Amino acid sequence: MDEPIKPETDLDVMTFNEVQLLLAEKRTALSTMRTGIAVFAFPLSVLSVLIATSKSYDVQAVLQWLVPLVLLNLGLTVLGIYLITRAVIRIHHYDRLIDGLKRKHSRLAELLG
Fewer Cβ neighbours under 10 Å: the N or C end of the chain? Predict the structure, then answer.
């Protein structure tokens, strides 16, 4: 006959599932940070190209294109900073939750180091 599942085993399975979920959420936050870094870097590269080629054009003649571009770059920079900040906060939150589980369960602390 099948043996009933012991409560200790249930706790271990539930704990491992919880840790797996937290680690998946942490990976998602790291992906958000990677996206934020890319969004933040794009306006900097565009502005560096504009500065490097500034001798090739007259600023007054292209001002109608330059102002919207600078505003768009400013918006992308703000979005990048927001994504990075949010990701760092979430990563620290998940780390604290995982540390709490590691303190509760010594076997988990051995596995996660």
Answer: N
